[in-house]
TrEMBL record:
Catalytic activities: tRNA(Cys) + L-cysteine + ATP = L-cysteinyl-tRNA(Cys) + AMP + diphosphate
Lineage of the organism: Bacteria, Bacillati, Actinomycetota, Actinomycetes, Micrococcales
Protein name: Cysteine--tRNA ligase
Gene Ontology MF, one: zinc ion binding
Stretches assigned to the Cysteinyl-tRNA synthetase class Ia DALR domain: 350-409
Gene Ontology BP, a term: cysteinyl-tRNA aminoacylation
One cellular component (GO) term of this entry: cytosol
InterPro entries: Cys-tRNA-ligase (IPR015803), Cys-tRNA-synt_Ia_DALR (IPR015273), Cys-tRNA/MSH_ligase (IPR024909), Rossmann-like_a/b/a_fold (IPR014729), tRNA-synt_1_cat_dom (IPR032678), tRNAsynth_Ia_anticodon-bd (IPR009080)
Pfam families on file: DALR_2, tRNA-synt_1e
Motif position, 'KMSKS' region: 270-274
Record EC number: 6.1.1.16
Region of interest (Disordered), ranges: 168-204
Length: 473
RNA sequence: GGUGGAGUGGCCGAGUGGCUAGGCAGCGGCCUGCAAAGCCGUAUACACGGGUUCGAUUCCCGUCUCCACCUCCA
C-alpha cells in the first residue's frame, strides 16, 4: 500500500513516506475569519477531511492542524467604523465556519490554533530570521520587519518563478523595503489602528504579517519537518511561497509535500466576492441536505476546478437518495449497520486504489455506484447474501468518504413520537387504499395517494405492500 | 510579460496508445392497474491542424480559446 499525492514543488506524484513511521502530520491553511464561509471554503475543508479519513483508515495516526487567522487587515477593516470590536467580529465569523463545517460532517482538526494565541512564537521566528540575516527592520522607523528575498536564492522554488519576473509585492507600504518584493513579517502599529490589535515586540508594538503565522504554528505543532501542507490553489503565491522561504531560511525542513486543492467556479469563473457570484455555505446547506452538498463537493477530483450549479446540486441529491435507498432496502433484508469506524480492508480493492492514487474520489465513487447497482440487482433477484455483501462494501466506502447516511441524522424531523403518530394516520389511509386497489377501484386509490402526496407524504408500492416516506423538499 | 492549469457526448466528471469510468438527464424494454423505485439495453465524445504509429481522445509539434496566481482570497 502506497498513498501518492501530487506535490506542487516538484510537480510530480510523491509517495507518502512519513517523517515518523505510522504517523502523518498534516497542516492546512484555514480561513481568515473576516466574512461568512462560502462553498469554496467548504470544498477546501472537505478535501482535507477526506484525506485525513483515508489516511486514518489506512492505519496512520494523523495529526491535522488547521489554523484560524483571526488578526488581519481585512478583519480590522471590517470592524472599523462599526460598533463591533475586531476580535468580536473574528470570533463571530469563526463560529459560522465551525457551524458550517459541522453541518457538512467535517471532523474537527486535531487542533485549531489561532493566530492571536501564537504571537510569541511568531516573534521568536522573526527574531531568528533577523539573526540569520534573512530579515530586517524597516529603516523608516515604521516598526515593520521584512523578509529579505534577495538573501534567499531559492525564493520562488514552490511556484517555479524567478524573482526578476515577478511583479512587486504590495502587502505593505514599500517605503521601508530594500526590495519591492520583500514581504512583511511584522507590521508596526499605525495610529488609526485599535490599541488592542497590537502586541509588544523587539521592534515596537505591532502585529504579525499574514505569512509568518503558518510557519510558526505548523512547526510548533507538527515539528520543524512535517509531511503534508495543504491549502487552496490561490494560496500558492504569495502565501505559500513566502511561508516556504521564511521557514527554510529559518533552518526548518518544513513540509515535504505541498498539496493544493482546486477552486470552485460559477459560470466558468472563479467565485469571489468582487464578482458577486458567491454561494454561501449557509444558503447552500439550507437548499439541500448536507449529505448531498458533501457528495457534490467530492464529485470532482480535489485538484480540478469544480463547476457549481443549482442543477448539479439537485442531481447530487438524487444520487445520494439512490444510494441511501439501496442501503435501506438492504437493511430490511438483513444487512447490519455499518460500523462507525472502518479500515481500508473493509472497502473494495478498486476503491482503495483510486483513493491511493492522489485521492481520486470520482473514481472511488464509481466503485460505490457499481456496488449499488449490483446490490440492487441482487435484491431484485432475491439473492440476499449478495445484496448484504454489496451493502457492507457500500457502507464502508461511504464511511471513508464521510457520506454515510447514518452520519447525517435528520435534524428536527426524526422525532419518534411524531413519527409514530404520523405512521398511524398514514397507515389508516394506506389500508383504505389497499382495499380500493383490491376492489380495482383505482380512482379512489389514486385519490388517496394524491392526497398524501399533497401533504408531503410519498407512497411507493412494493411487492410487500405500500411504503411511505416524507418528501425532502 | 512570468508561472500554473484546462478544453471529453445534453450537463457534471474520470481515464487510457487498441478492449472507450461513473452520475444525472434522454430513448427502448422488463416489472406495475397506473405511478415511483429498481433492473436490462441503448444513442450522442474526446477544441482545431499537422506528425509519429499497424492503430491516437491518449505521444510530439503548431494554432485557437478559456481559467487561476503574480493585489486580499479556499
Amino acid at each position: 500500500m502506497t498513498i501518492r499525492l501530487h506535490d506542487t514543488r516538484t510537480q510530480t506524484l510523491q509517495d507518502l513516506r512519513p517523517v515518523h513511521p505510522g504517523r502523518v502530520g498534516l497542516y492546512v491553511c484555514g480561513p481568515t475569519v473576516q466574512s461568512a464561509p462560502h462553498i469554496g471554503h467548504l470544498r477546501s475543508a472537505l478535501v482535507y477531511d477526506i484525506m485525513r479519513r483515508w489516511l486514518t483508515a489506512s492505519g496512520y495516526r494523523v495529526t491535522l492542524i488547521r489554523n484560524v487567522t483571526d488578526i488581519d487587515d481585512k478583519i480590522l477593516a471590517g470592524a472599523a467604523g462599526t460598533a463591533e470590536p475586531w476580535w468580536a467580529l473574528a470570533y463571530r465569523v469563526e463560529r459560522e465556519f465551525a457551524h458550517a463545517y459541522d453541518r457538512l460532517g467535517v471532523q474537527p482538526p486535531t487542533y485549531e490554533p489561532r493566530a492571536t494565541a501564537n504571537i510569541q512564537r511568531m516573534i521568536d521566528l522573526i527574531s531568528r530570521l533577523v539573526e540569520r540575516g534573512h530579515a530586517y527592520p524597516a529603516a523608516d522607523g515604521s516598526g515593520d520587519v521584512y523578509f529579505d528575498t534577495a538573501s534567499w536564492p531559492a525564493y520562488g522554488e514552490l511556484t517555479h518563478q524567478r524573482l526578476e519576473d515577478m511583479a512587486d509585492a504590495a502587502d505593505a507600504d514599500p517605503r521601508g523595503k530594500r526590495d519591492p518584493r520583500d514581504f512583511a513579517l511584522w507590521k508596526g502599529r499605525k495610529p488609526d489602528e485599535p490599541e488592542d490589535a497590537s502586541w509588544t515586540s523587539p521592534w515596537g508594538r505591532g502585529r504579525p504579517g499574514w505569512h509568518i503565522e503558518c510557519s510558526a504554528m505548523s512547526t510548533a505543532y507538527l515539528g520543524e519537518t512535517f509531511d503534508i501542507h495543504g491549502g487552496g490553489r490561490d494560496l500558492r503565491f504569495p502565501h505559500h511561497e513566502n511561508e516556504l522561504a521564511q521557514s527554510a531560511a529559518a533552518g526548518y525542513g518544513f513540509a515535504r509535500i505541498w498539496v493544493h486543492n482546486g477552486l470552485v467556479s460559477v459560470g466558468d469563473q472563479k467565485m469571489s466576492k468582487s464578482f458577486g457570484n458567491s454561494v454561501f455555505a449557509a444558503d447552500l446547506l439550507d437548499r439541500a441536505p448536507a449529505q448531498a452538498v458533501r457528495y457534490l463537493l467530492g464529485s470532482a477530483q480535489y485538484r480540478s476546478t469544480l463547476e457549481y450549479s443549482p442543477a448539479g446540486l439537485d442531481e447530487a441529491r438524487h444520487t445520494v437518495e439512490r444510494i441511501d435507498a439501496f442501503l435501506a432496502r438492504a437493511a430490511s433484508e438483513g444487512a447490519v449497520p455499518t460500523p462507525a469506524t472502518v479500515t481500508r480492508d473493509d472497502v473494495p480493492a478498486e476503491f482503495a486504489r483510486a483513493m491511493d492514487d492522489d485521492l481520486n474520489v470520482p473514481r472511488a465513487l464509481a466503485v460505490v455506484h457499481e456496488r449499488v447497482r449490483q446490490g440492487n440487482a441482487a435484491l431484485a433477484a432475491g439473492d440476499r447474501d449478495a445484496a448484504v455483501a454489496a451493502a457492507d462494501a457500500v457502507g464502508a466506502m461511504l464511511r471513508v468518504l464521510g457520506l454515510h447516511p447514518d452520519a447525517f441524522a435528520r435534524q428536527g424531523r426524526a422525532d419518534d413520537a411524531a413519527t409514530q403518530a404520523l405512521d398511524r394516520l398514514v397507515a389508516e389511509r394506506l389500508d383504505s387504499r389497499a382495499h380500493a386497489r383490491a376492489a380495482r377501484d383505482f380512482t379512489t386509490a389514486d385519490r388517496i395517494r394524491d392526497e398524501l402526496a399533497a401533504a408531503g407524504v410519498r407512497i411507493d408500492d412494493t411487492p410487500d405492500g405500500a411504503r411511505w416516506s416524507v418528501d425532502d423538499d
